[in-house]
UniProtKB/TrEMBL annotation:
Organism (species): Pseudenterobacter timonensis
Name by which UniProt lists this protein: Sulfofructosephosphate aldolase
GO MF entry, a single one: lyase activity
Protein EC: 4.1.2.57
Keyword Lyase: yes
HAMAP family on file: SFP_aldolase
Gene behind the chain: yihT
Amino acid sequence: MSHYTLNDITRPSGGFAMLAVDQREAMRLMFAAAGATTPVTDQHLTDFKVSATRILSPYASAVLVDNQFCYRQVVEQNAVSPGCATIVAADEFIPGNGIPVDSVVIDRSIDAQAVKRNGGKALKLLVLWRSDEDPQQRLEMVRAFNALCHDNGLVSIIEPVVRPPRRGDKFDREQAIIEAAKELGDSGADLYKVEMPLYGKGTQQALLTAAQRLHEQINMPWVILSSGVDEKLFPRAVRVAMQAGASGFLAGRAVWSSVVGLPDTDQMLRDISVPKLQRLGEIVDEMMARR
């Protein structure tokens, strides 16, 4: 059986310039906030995801799609550019307490062999990290996910995202990102997808110091995501994170969020999002060349 490796989802430079379109109810909320037609239907989301995949994947080393809204359609419509790898989200989001993603489990409806047959190279798992929840449970879920990937020759990508504790109101996001990395940064996955420290804000030096602290805890290649980072600050965030030891990005919002709700979606993706993604890819190559 062939086993895919990280090289199958990188640019020739060895860096990662990966596009995410796997947002689910969060994307619906973005459309609603942009004043899109109400209600925002599943079809709205599917159409946007497939368009974004088709138009942007030629400029990405990989594209992350979700099973719920677009994986089947992306495969059927051959929307992924030949030079771009497909990553499938293997997480099932469970809503609760008034939020779209209150907890996460492995999506057991994902057929890893079918993913591979359809050209998929990797699976991704969101892991919610709360200081007052059982670390053992998180680690066991990650180990089960790694086994699912590796038994099927797929690359394993984990995405720890920190949340305030269930009880109490004290929450230091920056410290939580470090604690989550301490706990999961050596958990046997192939790639660690992480939130950018300081939301990408502040001076370059403060950002670099925070990213270096993070790097010290992660014992595998890592990339940053763009949720929570002002899209104007994201290119710098990629540069600084890579200076600290990251190997690129896996991001959606920084690339396409500004076109959500605009008319002529395809044209807007070409005019606005393609240049952003191209520029981010250049930054990744530039930083890899310095290593």
